[in-house]
Recover the amino acids of this structure.
């Protein structure tokens, strides 16, 4: 599952909405919505994301959180390190090679490190 998929499933459960009901309301198939929740499809389109936010009547900060989760939920990513340092290329490759061997605790540690650093200038 993706972070976006987990959150959408939580919202559905909280509101007592079935996958089929939500899919019909959003104008997508239940198979597509299920694949999106389970990380078998890429990020939702901006249009679908906005429809989802409206469907659950989500506003302000929570809507921003949903958008951020969608941005971080592409299950198959590509990292272009062409113009970066050799260390950046090594980091990207090591992560690609080792992420499936990491425990959830190790992943949490790495995520925490990244979240606690401000990389924006």
């Amino acid at each position: 599952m993706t972070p976006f998929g987990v959150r959408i499933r939580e919202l559905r459960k909280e509101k007592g909405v079935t996958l089929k009901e939500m899919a019909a309301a959003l104008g997508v198939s239940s198979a597509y919505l299920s694949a999106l929740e389970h990380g078998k499809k890429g990020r939702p389109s901006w249009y679908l994301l906005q429809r989802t936010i409206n469907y659950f009547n989500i506003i302000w900060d929570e809507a921003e959180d949903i958008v951020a989760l969608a941005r971080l939920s592409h299950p198959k990513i590509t990292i272009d390190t062409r113009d970066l340092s050799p260390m950046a290329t090594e980091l990207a490759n090591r992560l690609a090679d080792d992420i499936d061997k990491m425990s959830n605790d190790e992943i949490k540690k790495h995520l925490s490190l990244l979240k606690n650093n401000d990389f924006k200038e």
Remarks:
- Residues 3-71 form a domain with the 434 Repressor (Amino-terminal Domain) fold (CATH 1.10.260.40).
